[in-house]
Design a protein that fits this description.
The protein is built from 12 helices and no strands. It is mainly alpha-helical. This is ABC transporter permease.
Length: 290
């Protein structure tokens, strides 16, 4: 009886809800109604959290709440970064890390996207590709590094393969899932108008998979830096990870923190770049994110 009463009340409100959706002015005139969505985006809101974190670090260091032997003060880290820039070590190692991460990310994105299209558009392709991808997904990258060292040595090839395989997984998972959720009506429409296989991929499949692709790309950017941190501490002779390994040997905590800050900033700016690209590519889509 209670369920019927709730259903009747909801059905009775449907005309009002439909009128509100059809009339933007009416939709805005809802005094006393609580906002359900997150609201409008805050300008530069993504920087508020990091700024507060740095502010807490400054206050903790200034008041002595944070032991300098455990975590150096921000001004000490900034001074150390200035010294590393002055002697050229920071720039050269940063450039090496950017090249490794960029190349591994680019190849991994391409591989993941191709595999997702093969598995998403063909049942045979899915049978061949999805199983191995899921197996790799369940195996941590750290567990594969000893095997990759045996197979490919300890040079740049091993480092690139580790980053590439790590990046390809989130691209594949999210793009494949989005491909499988493309509205069947679009597929039927493509068949009705007589689109070729390539036209269907270009006009329906690829645009329909973009939301999942960008979700995977955001994850892939972060994972690329995580994999870079690992491989640059395996017999590397250059890179930010190598710089941090040397600093650990000599007990230079300030240099280690400089490396961590750089990794964090690279990850943050990379995520911002992907989100900006996503907004432009998916400007037609209305979401709670704005």
């Amino acid at each position: 009886m209670a369920i019927r009463t709730v259903e009747a009340g909801f059905l009775g409100r449907l005309p009002v809800l439909r009128r509100a959706e059809a009339d933007p002015v009416l939709a805005q005139r809802k005094p006393g109604r609580r906002r359900l969505g997150p609201g409008r985006p805050i300008p530069f809101g993504i920087g508020i959290g990091p700024v507060l974190l740095v502010l807490a670090w400054v206050i903790g260091s200034a008041t002595g709440s944070i032991d300098a032997e455990t975590l150096p003060a921000p001004w000490t880290v900034a001074e150390t970064a200035g010294d590393l820039i002055a002697d050229g070590r920071l720039q050269s190692n940063l450039l090496t890390s950017l090249q490794r991460a960029g190349l591994g990310l680019g190849i991994g994105v391409l591989v993941g996207l191709v595999l997702a299209l093969v598995a998403g558009l063909s049942r045979i392709g899915e049978a061949l590709v999805d199983g191995p991808i899921q197996i790799k997904r369940a195996i941590p990258t750290l567990a594969l590094i000893p095997l990759f060292i045996v197979w490919f040595g300890i040079g740049e090839e091993m480092k690139l393969i580790v980053i590439t395989t790590s990046v390809a997984i989130p691209i594949y998972i999210n793009t494949h899932a989005q491909l499988r959720s493309v509205d069947a009506r679009y597929v039927e429409l493509a068949q009705t108008v007589g689109l070729s296989r390539w036209e269907f991929v270009r006009r329906v499949a690829l645009p329909g998979s973009l939301p999942g692709f960008f979700t995977g790309l955001r994850l892939a950017v972060t994972i690329a830096w995580l994999a870079l941190v690992v491989v640059e501490q395996v017999n590397a002779t250059s890179g930010i990870g190598y710089l941090m390994t040397q600093a650990r040997t000599y007990g230079q905590i300030d240099v280690i923190v400089v490396g961590l800050v750089i990794y964090g900033l690279l990850g943050l700016f990379g995520d911002i770049a992907v989100r900006v690209s996503e907004r432009r590519a998916l400007s037609w889509r209305q979401t709670l994110g704005g």
